[in-house]
Each structure stands twice: as C-alpha cells, then as structure tokens.
C-alpha cells in the first residue's frame, strides 16, 4: 500500500481569515511571540501497490483537479 500526503495552503498573497482568527486567539490563551498563522488542509491518500513515480504523478493530478484550488492555493505532495 502506498500512502501519499497532500498539504494544501493558501498562496501567500491570499487573505487567510481563519489563520488571522487563530493568530488573534493565541495571545489571549497565553502564547506570546507568534507573528503569523496560516491555516491549510492535509489529505492522506492510500493507493494500491508500492510507491512509484507514476503513483506520485497521479496524486499530483488529484491535487491539481480536486484537492486544491490552483488559483488561490499551493500544494505539496510527498510519500509518507
């Protein structure tokens, strides 16, 4: 079984209201020194077979077509 992880994050120039909300809450909870927070998504995809370049390419295609919005998000895919 091959397991891949897709991490999706908003592009740096895109506003991240969820990240800003977390950033505002952290000092109220006693966490000092945090200068920025960005919130993203993580997908774990299991495929039949052993990890390979072909399966990695297939997961990248999944990320481009469904798991992310390429207009406002960047993603990284790696084998776990």
UniProtKB/TrEMBL annotation:
| Location(s), subcellular | Cytoplasm
Predominant location of this chain?
Answer: cytoplasm
State the reactions this protein catalyses.
Answer: N(2)-formyl-N(1)-(5-phospho-beta-D-ribosyl)glycinamide + L-glutamine + ATP + H2O = 2-formamido-N(1)-(5-O-phospho-beta-D-ribosyl)acetamidine + L-glutamate + ADP + phosphate + H(+)
EC class (word): ligase
Tagged with keyword Nucleotide-binding = yes
* Biological pathway: Purine metabolism; IMP biosynthesis via de novo pathway; 5-amino-1-(5-phospho-D-ribosyl)imidazole from N(2)-formyl-N(1)-(5-phospho-D-ribosyl)glycinamide: step 1/2
Kindly list the biological process annotations in GO that this record carries.
'de novo' IMP biosynthetic process
Family as reported in the entry's similarity comment: Belongs to the PurS family.
What name does UniProt use for this protein?
Answer: Phosphoribosylformylglycinamidine synthase subunit PurS
């Amino acid at each position: 079984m091959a397991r891949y992880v897709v991490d999706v994050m908003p592009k740096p120039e895109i506003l991240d209201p969820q990240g800003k909300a977390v950033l505002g809450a952290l000092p109220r909870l006693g966490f000092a020194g945090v200068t920025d927070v960005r919130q993203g998504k993580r997908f774990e995809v299991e495929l039949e077979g052993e990890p390979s370049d072909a399966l990695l390419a297939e997961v990248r295609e999944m990320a481009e077509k469904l798991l992310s919005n390429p207009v406002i998000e960047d993603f990284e895919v790696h084998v776990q």
